[in-house]
Amino acid sequence: MAATTSSPRRSPGALTAAAAIGLTLFASVMLFCSGVLAIYRGIMAITQDGVFVATRDYVFRFHVTGWGWVHLCLGVVAVAVSFGLLAAAAWARVLGVALTALVIAVRVLSAPYYLEWSLLLIVLYGLIIWALCVSGRGTFPGLARRR
């Protein structure tokens, strides 16, 4: 006789919790990576104005050093929010959505300079907002209790 093995069935609640953990982890890692890149971009713009392209015929005129400070501040906040998401802090989820929406606005303003890069980041930030909105709160402490 052949023995049959059945794969364990997961409850819908367990699948939802696993998806929430994965989405929150995705949002946290993406915010951390984009925050670090924004910090580097900000430092480059502050120290060397010649690194970025400037267009004369653009409606919004900003000095490159000013853009550098904006990127530097947003990057530092994004890194802090990513650590808050890993700690399952409720403030981090709310601030993460607000910060990501603000960064999308910054990307729209920089689209005439770097169109493809701005569009790619707008899509990425949209995914981060989606991940933060659909996943439940307090997901990482639940993972620690189940193991």
What does this structure look like?
With 147 residues, this protein is mainly alpha-helical. It contains five helices and no strands. The chain has one domain. Helix 1 runs antiparallel to helix 4. The two termini are 36 Å apart. The C terminus is likely disordered. Keywords: Membrane, Transmembrane, Transmembrane helix. This is DUF7144 domain-containing protein. InterPro entries: DUF7144.
Short description:
The protein is mainly alpha-helical and 147 residues long. It has helices at 12-47, 64-86, 90-109, 115-134, 139-146.
The tally of beta strands, per DSSP, is: 0
Based on CA inertia axes, which overall geometry fits?
A: elongated
Helix content: over 70%
Element order, helices and strands? HHHHH
Class of secondary structure makeup: mainly alpha
Low-confidence stretches: 142-147
Number of helices: 5
Strand proportion, as a percent range, falls in under 5%
Task: Indicate how many domains the architecture comprises.
Answer: 1
| Largest beta-sheet details | none
Mean pLDDT equals 78
- Specify Rg, calculated over alpha carbons: 20 Å
Report the end-to-end length measured between terminal Cα atoms: 36 Å
Regarding quaternary structure, what we see is single chain
